[in-house]
Amino acid sequence: MVEKRETILIVDDERFNINVLKDLLDHDYDTMVARNGAQALKRVNSGTLPDLILLDIMMPEMDGYEVCKKLKEDENTRDIPVVFVTAMSDVDDEMKGFSLGAVDYLTKPISPPITLARIKTHLALKNSLEKQKELNQIKNKFLGIAAHDLRNPLTSLQGMSQLMLKIPLPEEKKTKFIESINKTSNQMLKLVNDLLDVSVIESGRFDLRLNVNNLSTVAAERAELISEIAENKGVKLVSNLSDLPDSQFDEDRICQVVDNLLTNAVKFSETGTTVTLTTREIDDKLELGVTDQGQGIPADEIDSLFGAFKKTSVKPTAGEKSTGLGLSIVKKIIEAHKGTIEVISEVGKGSTFLVKLNKQ
Amino acid sequence: MNRPLDRILYAEDEPDIQEVAVLALETVGEFNLKLCNTGKEAVAAAPEYKPDLLLFDVMMPEMDGPTAFQEIRTLPGMESIPVIFMTAKVQPEEIAKYKELGALDVIPKPFDPMNLAQAVRDCWNKQ
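^ Those are the sequences you sent over. The predicted structure of the assembly is below.
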């Protein structure tokens, strides 16, 4: 991928100064030029925002201080780092620049390597700040969705317990409520665990505990556990597992992947259909596949399938719950193992999830 | 002063929440209640049931609460039927959106089943 070149706006009234800076910067950056303050503000407010502004102080009509003040007052331009470049080397001048919100102050004649180094530092700081803002927005959106997904089950937990305490109910009803409370609290626990998983994975503190394991052995164990859930729903779970060589993976995490794929397949399958679990060796990869005869996933929703909280229009067949987090966790686990996951799906026929892991 | 509130058309897809709300409105609140599982069911049931008030969950499969409300408002005799939405989406911009659609009010989830009927009645009375 070609990295986007950053744009620097040079504001100076003297052609010579502009040329010195342009010669210095043109190799690594795109440059824009303004010959006075008014032109600088005009350039900034029309079209592309520069990533950094080199601003002379002594200019006719509107000086650099005034330009900086105006830039900092405008919400759109407030975050562009401003570096003053000036012959005025008095401490008071310099302090005035900083107090107006400039990030740095370079004195003419400038030192080319120092100027480049400082520009690089300020651009890196700006980028990391932008990245943090973006992550913060994602986090807030995430919290909003999580709060919503916890409020719904809380409605039944709180409502049922409150009614049992406050009004006389037949024994039968009470038992039903207690069963619901139990079921709902388990679902909430699943959501809370998934949220914690996502936060661990996103924070980068996601360490795999790699050990020598056998994918088919793990798959067989998980299939046995999940076959009970499948049976209860009248879905047949068939395992078709090859003899595979041992390989290195994090057993707990791969169990989580198999569990997720199998429970998903059962969740989206009708009674009387079959879910098939397969493993096989292809070249230098080990492949695990889960195939269902469910509703299939529309082609335009496949891409968003692995995003956090991305539930598709396809719904579980017996009112089961989904957090919308399972597949995003599965994908992260597979990626951490340097493996891949793909989906082949046809609406009305069913879906196959294929996980490929490296053999070694 | 409005005539007293009696018949409520209630739509909610979640069986557990239905249980709680039905007890809260029928047993505690002594309203006449017609329960629907989706917005679509509610639109189909409205002409015959002739409700005084719609009480709709927002997010439901097939047809959501706001869409069902808008469809019911196009039916003869129901051009000005009031609606209250119940939702777990309680951010201010969400609530403002539902009020703009013409909702009397929005009741956030979770709700207290012992106070739900009174909350609905208060909304009705302040029309």
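Chain B has one domain: 7-125. Chain B has a mean pLDDT of 94.

Shout if you want it in another format.
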